[in-house]
Each structure stands twice: as structure tokens, then as C-alpha cells.
Amino acid sequence: MELTYKKEIVYQKKTNLRSLFNDIFVMAKRDLLKIKHSPDKLMDVTLMPILFMVMFTFLFGGAISGDVASYLPIIVPGILVQTLVSSSSATGTQLREDMDTGVFDRFKSLPIARIAPLAGLVLSDVLRYVIATFFSIGTGYLIGWRPEAGFGWLLVACVLSIFAAWAISWIFALVGLMVRSAATISGLSMMITMVLSFLSSAFVPIKTLPTWLQGIANVNPVTHLVDAFKDLANHGHLSMNVLATLLISCVIVAIIAPITVKIYSKKI
């Protein structure tokens, strides 16, 4: 009798877990279908990295590194990271829009896990990061950049960058729950992206900055991510920057994700 009861509990847990994942994937599919019907939502991860890559490379390559070819190892990781950080704000923007339009009120009446809409949104945005990475790296490759460590290490560098962007998306999801409009998130994300990107090693070598700015740039998480990408793609080794990026990303998820889920549960 007791054995049968335990089997029933195990089966119920497996069923509940399967149902949870199914709900999350359904919500993720919903968000992807919205992109399908509104392709303009992908402009920030398709056209923008191309424009920034071409513009920065040919405008500043000669001034900063002497020629375009010497500047590519700096600018390609920089534009990629800038694009990923910027696109991660879409999680908060979409979350805020769904709350403002009353979509979550309809979700309450559905027999789905309450966390599914949030988890599905965060999951579906991974596709945006993959697209941003493809266009950023692809544009750099067409211009003349090559990963010196080979494409295997380039793949590792891209996965690390996407994971970092996914971790940052939890911050913007929390912001989306706290602010009152999607426009506010867009403004904040632009300001945060510009500050983090330009006060880092994304566009210029840190040694060229004034001493007091070097201190800020050295502790900037974006610097660690950009340098980690360079270490993996160009040198093929796991440096302290790679470990720092992993640690920072995991800490963000461990701290921000539970807070976001808790506030989200109260909001809906």
C-alpha cells in the first residue's frame, strides 16, 4: 500500500513537471509567433548590428588602430556584446506591454502554470540572441574578421555571450515589472547599453583611456564579457575573464530571477 502511494506521488510529480515544461514551451511559441507576424521586431538584432559594424569599422578603424584589419579584432566582439546587451531589454519591454494590454488577465483564467508566461518569454528571447550573434559575427566575417582560434572556440565564445545576455534579460524583466510603461524601459536600456559599452574595452583598448576611466572600465562586466570573447575566439583558452563572466552571469540569475518571479507572482 505504501509502495503504491509513493509511486503515485512520483508519477504525479513527473506529470506536473511535464505539464509545466509544456506550458512554458507553449508560451515561448506564442512569443515567437508574434515575431513571425511582426518581423520589424527583429530590426534591433538584424539591421542594427550590420549598420554599427560597418559604420564603426570604417569610421574609426584607421583612427584607433591604424587600419581596418587591425581594428576588427576589437570591434567585432564589441558590437556583438553591445547588440546582445541592448536586445536583452526586449524581455522587459514585452513583459510590460503584455501587462498593460491585459493579456496576463486572460492567462489567469487558463489552466496553465502561473510562471509559464514569464518563463516562456525569457526562453523565446534566446532566439533573438542567436539571431543577433549570427548577424554580428556574419557581418564581421564578410568585412574580413577571422576567429584565430578556429570555429570551435568561436562557438564556445558565442554560447557564453548568449548565456550572459540571457542572464541580463532577467534584470530587464524585473525592470519591466517595476516601471509603468514600455517606453521607460526603452529609454533606460539605451542609456545603460551606451554607458556599459563605451566605458569598456568594446570599442577602444582600455590603456588608451584616462587613468580614472581605466579603473571603471576594468570592473565593468561588459569588459569581462568582451575580453572573454576575445580570449576564446582569438586565443582558444579559458581565461579569468571567461570565469568572471560565468560567475557574474550565474550570480545575476541566482539573485535577480527569484526576485523577479516573486514580484511577478504578486503582480498577476
Automatic annotation (TrEMBL):
ABC transmembrane type-2 domain location: 40-267
Pfam families attached to this UniProt entry: ABC2_membrane (PF01061)
Localisation per UniProt entry: Cell membrane; Membrane
UniProt keyword list: Cell membrane, Membrane, Transmembrane, Transmembrane helix, Transport
GO CC entries: ATP-binding cassette (ABC) transporter complex
Signal peptide: none
InterPro entries xref list: ABC2_TM (IPR013525), ABC2_TM_bact-type (IPR047817), ABC_2_transport (IPR000412), Nod_factor_ABC_transporter (IPR051784)
Residue ranges of the TM segments: 42-64, 70-91, 112-131, 151-175, 182-204, 242-264
GO MF annotation terms: ABC-type transporter activity
Bilayer disposition of the protein: Multi-pass membrane protein
Protein family per UniProt: Belongs to the ABC-2 integral membrane protein family.
Protein's name according to its UniProt entry: Transport permease protein
Organism of origin: Listeria booriae
